[in-house]
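Researcher: Here's a chain I'd like modeled. Treat it as a single chain, no partners, no ligands.
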Amino acid sequence: MLANSLRKIGALSGLRPLLLQGVKEPLSAAAAGSRAFSSDTDGKIVRGADGHILPHGGGGLVSLMAGSKAAEEARSRCNHQVELTERQACDVELLTVGGFTPLDGFMNEEAYNSVVQEMRLPGGLLFGLPVVMDTSNDSIKPGSKLMLTYKGQEVAVMDVDSRWQPNKVVEVQRCYGSTSLEHPAVSMVATERGRFYLGGKVTGFELPQRVFPCASPEEVRAGLPSGTDVVAFQCRNPIHRAHYELFTRALDAPNVARDGVVLVHPTCGPTQDDDIPGIVRYHTYEVLQKEVDNPRVKWAYLPYSMHMAGPREAIQHMIIRKNYGCTHFIIGRDMAGCKSSLSGEDFYGAYDAQDFAKSHAKELGMKTVPSLNVVFTEEKGYITADVAEKEGLHVKKLSGTKFRQMLRSGEPIPDWFAFASVVDVLREHQQHKVSQ
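Model: Modeled as a single isolated chain. Structure tokens:
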């Protein structure tokens, strides 16, 4: 029923969403060649006594992890058991460790409606996307105590205080700017999420056991230098040479302190169906850390489930990274964007997320850093595209399709395009897939 409704509504509207309330028209392609952000849009960094930026909302990190006695008491109250999906397990982990600060559990109906409609919690605080538990179990009602398990492991208890049947058509239109099932998040909401949404406090006692470690905000902050800038780089794919040039050059941005560092913070939860599996991405990051051995580049992994929500997801990522101790955020071209699964048309403009993030940076108390368009030239190596064009340099290109073909065939991959250690991991993954 819902999927049919979404198909009908999606067929009546174009793919490009109208999410940019209060943001000027995006720049033309010509004007977008150099996307330097003005300091006029930067937020003021407010630091705590430890020298790190204060978490979202200005208070402390909200940790929902219970001690052994409280955990045992929480277990004894349970009257339902719910096995979490991979996406739900990511949400539970981020709630319990404080990644979603200031939330102390899954949003209730009031908070959900406020975030869907206004992108704000009921008190007015910005929040990019709703964080809800879903179920199709009609016996779960307000007052239910849920034992949340992940692959059989008991990870948390949820005290349900709100249950409602959401208007998913309104949700996806407001949050993703589309009702088309060709959008991966619209399809997820329509076909994977249950009939009811649940809100309520969460008590955690174990983190989901994963093959890759995800440090908590407290742990990440402890490994970052205090009193200086931390620039977050979000990614969901293996890092190649152009990515590395992009985030290391971000340290030279005029609004970044000279002794600042980059936190490479990839999402290792579910993304798009055709993305490289999280465990493979994790191995590429691990070998790359050793290969580059750069003291100004820190690494950590984020148990986050991507929505591919473009502008709204940029806000969500900034909030999460602020909780992990980041003062700045690199907004890439077409960040968290996606294409129609049928036509290949983009759901968002190339710079929609950048413009949206820039327009909210002051309120978030963070600073944005432009994602430079770097290219490799025969004459000068990596430089920005506008300089290469101005000087008439020879730009070398390698498409993603050609790169994947070369991986499969065993052809040498140019050093200017990819790191040898990353290529080795990807080739090993390819061979494993073939052998299966």
